[in-house]
Specification:
about 180 residues, mainly alpha, about 0% strand
């Protein structure tokens, strides 16, 4: 799950810049997307935290909604030719980031005990690193073999296919909540 999330996310950090340049949207505007995203994450994180209490069901819900938001961000930029569509796409991605990426470590921690906590968290961290490492390459390969729209649809479908798996997660934690 984590690997695929990061493969998709890395398209924003790599291949979307080329797409925007091909649509005559400047590098400066592409770079500004990440200023917008950072600002949104700083704003959204404290606003969304009180909405979800810290328990298994809420953490799972946050990850599910976050992964869905990631998926939606790729649909938003299908055939995008204007800057506002990329702004909307990265805004939806930022909400997904706040919901899913900040919650995954807490959710994973519920499956750990004192004997394996470090190992489980390191596997999670490694999965993120693998996704970040292969994301630009995998996306670039798919784009060069097909096109941007097909690649974004594949990433969208992949994220949607993760949702039932996430919904199947069971609370095996010894935590009361």
């Amino acid at each position: 799950v984590i690997i695929f999330i990061w493969i998709g996310y890395e398209q924003w950090n790599s291949n979307i810049s080329v797409l925007m340049l091909s649509k005559n949207i400047s590098v400066q505007k592409y770079s500004f997307l990440f200023t917008i995203s950072t600002f949104e994450i700083v704003i959204f994180q404290p606003l969304l935290r009180p909405v979800f209490k810290s328990n298994f069901e809420n953490e799972r819900l946050r990850v599910v909604v976050g992964v869905f938001m990631f998926a939606l961000s790729y649909l938003i930029i299908l055939d995008a030719t204007t800057y506002w569509r990329f702004i909307l796409g990265i805004t939806v991605l930022s909400i997904g980031d706040v919901l899913a990426l900040t919650t995954i470590p807490a959710l994973i921690n519920r499956y750990a005990n004192d004997n394996n906590r470090a190992s489980i968290q390191s596997i999670s961290s490694t999965a993120g690193s693998v996704g970040r490492a292969i994301g630009p390459l995998a996306g670039g390969y798919m784009i060069s073999q097909t096109n941007y729209n097909f690649t974004f649809i594949v990433i969208f479908v992949g994220h949607v296919m993760l949702l039932p798996l996430l919904l199947l997660l069971k609370n095996t934690s010894k935590h009361i909540n």
